[in-house]
Amino acid sequence: MSLISALENVHQKGQFGDYEDKDENSLLKVSELKNLLIVQVVQYKNSNNLIDKLIIDNLKISNNPLNVSNNENTRILWYGPRNWLIVSKNKKIIKEIEQNFSDKDFAVTDLSHSRAIIELEGDEAKEVLKKGCPFNFNNLNKNNCLNSIFNGISITVDMTNDKPEKLRIFALRSFGESLYHSITDACLEFGYIGK
Amino acid sequence: MLYIKCPHCGMRSQNEFSYGGDASVKRPELNKEISDQEWDNFVYNRKSLRGKHWELWQHLSGCRQWIKVQRDTATHEIFNTLKAEEEIN
User: Fold this and answer.
1) Which of A75, A109, B43, B50 could anchor a disulfide with A70, C-beta 3.0 to 4.6 Å?
2) CATH of domain B1-25+49-89
3) Residue A9 — φ and ψ, nearest 5°?
4) Residue A140, Cα to own-chain centre: how many angstroms?
């Protein structure tokens, strides 16, 4: 299947907002992440399979709320009870996922083409999200994730780094453009670079 | 802003939740003969209580789980939350 970027028509490169007289390194950076494998895994209620024993891309699946197990290529987000989102640069792990999660115990859905992902990087990244999301971002640390809303749009936030703050924001693909406008509007105050 | 403590995710804004009705209503047992009045009571008839009340809410923009919430319908104060499968004491 060919890849068509979800934000192809809206994402602009360059400097925007209050960027003048500021060091480029201190500006927020907004970019689109694409070409990632995104798979949702849900364990059925009647399944007794022990999730702790399953390993994907050398990562144990965590049942800790809001936590992300991760390595260089793959991040496994806690998405809800018995519910995980696997996001990986390595598309080959889809075979490993299909082998490890049996049809009897798990529903596995490839969502790679149904999400828009915006990456926000910079010291004010959390401040941008605070403008439209009711979550207390002071409690969000590196390798935490959450589901919430941003200006009425359902989002998933994954904090991949804390120095500088680096956040991935996932939304349904059809809401991607609207979310992009909301996020970039919120970034104008700080000045941002579209990458 | 009203905050609800989701038993799965922790303290979250009410904006992420969707109200789901009275949590104290129980479905009649399967295969049991029941009257039209009992069906009416299960499907339609609700009390509009003032005070503490157990309600169903869904954490729609979070973990998507249904939960039980004990809320004061007059003051909106929230006293307790439970997972959907947990029994109300």
Assistant:
1) A75
2) 3.30.2270.10
3) -85, -10
4) 14
- Whole-model pTM: value is 0.90
SS3 A129: helix
CB contact under 8 A, B61 and A148: yes
- What ipTM did this prediction achieve? 0.87
Contact pairs from chain A to chain B, CB under 8 Å:
41
CB contact under 8 A, A81 and B63: yes
Domain A14-34+115-194 of CATH type 3.30.1360.120: yes
Q: Which of B9, B13, B16 sits opposite A66 (nearest CB)?
A: B9
Q: What is the pLDDT of residue B76?
A: 93
**DSSP state letter for A179:** H
**C-beta atoms surrounding A37 within 10 Å:** 19
Interface test with A, best of B63, B65, B82, B83 (most A CBs within 10 A): B63
